[in-house]
Predict the 3D structure of the following.
Amino acid sequence: MRSQLMAVATASPPFELRTEDVIEEATRIFAGRHRDFERMMPVFANTGIRRRQSVRPYSWFRSEQGWPERTDAFIDGASELFRKAAGEALAQAGMEPGEIDTIVTVSSTGIATPSIEARVMHGMGFHKNVSRIPVFGLGCAGGTTGLSLAARLAQTPASNVLLVVIELCTLAFRPDEMTKSNIIATALFGDGAAACVLSGRKKDGLGAIEYSGEHSWPDTLDIMGWRMDPQGFGAIFSQRIPDFVTQELRAAADGFLGRNGLSVDDIGQYVFHPGGAKVIAALEQVFHLDQGTLEIERQVLADHGNMSAPTVLFVLKEALKKPFTGRRFLSALGPGFTSSFATMVS
């Protein structure tokens, strides 16, 4: 029996970053220090983002922060968002923490050992013998890949799985990094978390996770990822991502669908990770969707920015609010360079 998605919940941190305020802060930090900053200023206005959220206020980013400070902020912020998102997902599913057999925690924006779920599980009432699977390194693909992994775990044996996806992208802000990638990251990324409950025991959920898969392209490690140095993470973020989507993604998606006996004609709704305004436009182009079809993706991007892995689950949550019967296609791109795919039947 296919795993049922029983609940999708989201959580955002308390500090709001309005784009006009971010521009003011970025100008104060970068103007006169980065030779291309003035030329790159339109990036902020063209992101399609109105506001984002962060686990820390502006004042925190004005001071020099190293690995210890960033790690402390990650553990504090991620633990709180885990509690909020997981608690809401369990309430939606009508389950108690003790009914969960496995916890999958996905994050690529901080390092914590013990991992985040280990820090909060006993206080939340999870069973002492619950299995824990922390996953690092998937980046923006982590929401779709995490959902697929959790669905497979719920199938064998039939069990209940909690997926929690947390990314605190703003903690990687580097006032000392005079690079284009850092400025683009400053314009795009926000913090957030999403949680899903999947069950191989129950039949009446929001939909069944049907097929899942990935496609990785060789010689593309330079497109997206982290560079690590004594101060923290440094963003690797190529400006050619929208062009890459236009040129490469459709063939990979067709291959995934074809291997499972499907085609785009079998898809009733698309749920994409909205990496940016240009990426959304490229997705509509390559999948031959009318301009404006991906309105949910644009709205999530406008209200939360690119939160990396949980963003696609924010989109899924909103999509599930509207009546729909049929097959959904989920897709997100991440470091590797890799596209993660899944189909869901309601």
